[in-house]
């Protein structure tokens, strides 16, 4: 009986987290009230507080979900032997993931999470560092076998990889989601690949 209640709570927390990401995607963190999150999850606000103490705890759960989703993207390419192919698939899946979840950039790049709230900032930093390290390991594999150039160190190439995604997403948000990120993915990837595979 206890186990069943715990599983139900975990499912409800997941539903609330997904609803929060959806509302944040529409209205940003500051505009996402607990009333609206509860409504999107199909529950009352009172029921929401049975699963999360406050809005900050919900945002932490959203950040954790983003981290888990990014980790899943990395895990999805783990068995691919070609590091350059690993990077390409990771790059394109990352853009696809964001295109389908506007709440991701509106959480990660929010002033609330990177400036105002130290606890949320630390959470986001941990998520970014985890993903950065995962990409960096692929880059180092590529450099080791000669698939990637060594003019830049792995840290710089990884920063370029993530920075290219960041720039594309920022432009996409500012252009009211046009053109689609997935439409631009191939061109963006080719430009990145040319830069990092060039050898003197």
Please give a structural write-up:
The structure is a single chain. The longest helix is centred in the first third of the chain and has 30 residues, at 2-31. This protein has one domain: Tetracycline Repressor, domain 2 (Orthogonal Bundle), CATH 1.10.357. Helix content is 78%, strand content 0%. It starts with a helix and ends with a helix. The chain is built from 10 helices and no strands. With 200 residues, the chain is mainly α.
Q: What is the element layout, followed by pairings?
A:
Layout lengths: L1 H30 L2 H8 L3 H4 L6 H21 L7 H17 L3 H6 L2 H6 L1 H27 L9 H21 L6 H17 L3
Q: Indicate the percent of residues in helices.
A: over 70%
Count up the helices: 10
Shape estimate? elongated
Average residue pLDDT: 94
Q: How many E strands?
A: 0
> Which residues form runs of ≥5 with pLDDT under 50?
none
What percentage of amino acids are in beta strands?
A: under 5%
Helix/strand structural class: mainly alpha
Oligomer: single chain
CATH architecture field: Orthogonal Bundle
- Report the CATH C-level class: Mainly Alpha
The CATH fourth-level homologous superfamily: Tetracycline Repressor, domain 2
Q: How far apart are the first and last residues' alpha carbons, in Å?
A: 66 Å
């Amino acid at each position: 009986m206890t186990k069943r209640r715990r599983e139900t709570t975990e499912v409800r927390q997941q539903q609330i987290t997904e609803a929060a990401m959806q509302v944040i995607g529409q209205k940003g963190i500051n505009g996402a009230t607990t009333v609206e999150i509860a409504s999107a999850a199909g529950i009352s606000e009172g029921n929401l507080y049975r699963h999360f103490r406050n809005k900050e705890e919900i945002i932490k759960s959203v950040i954790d979900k983003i981290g888990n989703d990014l980790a899943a993207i990395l895990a999805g390419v783990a068995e691919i032997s070609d590091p350059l192919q690993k990077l390409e698939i990771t790059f394109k899946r990352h853009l696809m993931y964001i295109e389908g979840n506007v709440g991701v950039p509106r959480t990660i790049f929010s002033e609330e999470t990177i400036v105002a709230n130290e606890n949320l900032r630390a959470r986001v930093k941990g998520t970014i560092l985890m993903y950065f390290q995962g990409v960096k390991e692929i880059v180092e594999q590529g450099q080791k076998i000669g698939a990637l150039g060594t003019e830049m160190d792995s840290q710089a190439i990884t920063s370029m990889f993530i920075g290219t995604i960041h720039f594309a997403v920022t432009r996409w948000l500012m252009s009211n989601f046009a053109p689609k990120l997935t439409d631009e993915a191939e061109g963006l990837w080719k430009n990145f690949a040319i830069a990092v595979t060039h050898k003197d």
